[in-house]
Write a structure and sequence with these properties.
Length: about 210
């Protein structure tokens, strides 16, 4: 994936939506101040599915988040995600077992929403929290985890994202999302410290009072 090209596209998209938002605001007759009593509170729950690469292998990330929306333009809440890459590490630890890399992370997110009343607009969720990762033995019973100290680790995560949101109905929004995952160093055998860092792209399904 061309990271520079993706960045240019995202900047153009943000500029376009910001211009629409400014035009929308200029068309409003009511002059609003920071002390205005006319504020709206809402909330939403969301499910997401996304694609990423972990250790240069295809990975699926599924998650959920929920937040409180302040005055249509800022959401604050909690989110959690789980991931697994789909390629086996054959005999990784010289023990005649096959492994997959799997784990999850979650934490607090803050989400500015630009032009929320426009049919198409931008939101910028930023998540920071903690996660865990482990090599999972390839086994018929996925509840079986091999988790000695050298095959698992806990890490800090910071993940800013940009989402192109579509107001499908009053209580449902569909968003295309792209994010970049930053983590603290992963300390596991035969594993790069930045193995979990990288781009993610996917879809988010939001339900609530916006």
């Amino acid at each position: 994936m061309n990271k520079f090209g993706l960045l240019i596209c995202l900047l153009l998209l943000v500029s376009s939506v910001a211009a629409q938002s400014e035009q929308y605001a200029n068309n409003q007759e009511e002059f609003k101040t920071i002390f205005s009593n006319k504020r709206s509170n809402g909330g939403y729950g969301a499910l997401s599915i996304a694609y990423s690469e972990i250790d240069n292998k295809d990975a699926i990330i599924v998650g959920a988040r929920g937040g409180w929306i302040i005055n249509h333009s800022l959401a604050i809440g909690l989110g959690g995600y789980g991931f697994a890459n789909d390629i086996n590490y054959d005999n990784l630890f010289n023990d005649n077992r096959d492994y997959n890399l799997a784990g999850g992370y979650g934490g607090l997110f803050v989400e500015p929403i630009i032009g929320p009343k426009l049919p198409v607009h931008i939101s910028i969720p930023i998540l920071f929290g903690f996660g865990g990762v482990s090599y999972v033995e390839h086994h018929n019973n996925w509840d079986y985890w091999w988790s000695t100290d050298d095959k698992s680790d806990v890490y800090f995560v910071f993940e800013p994202a940009i989402e192109l949101e579509f107001n499908v109905t009053r209580h449902f929004r569909l968003a295309a999302t792209a994010s970049y995952r930053f983590t603290s160093d992963i300390e596991m055998l035969y594993t790069d410290p930045d193995i979990l860092e990288g781009l993610t792209a996917g879809l988010v399904f939001k339900f609530g009072k916006f």
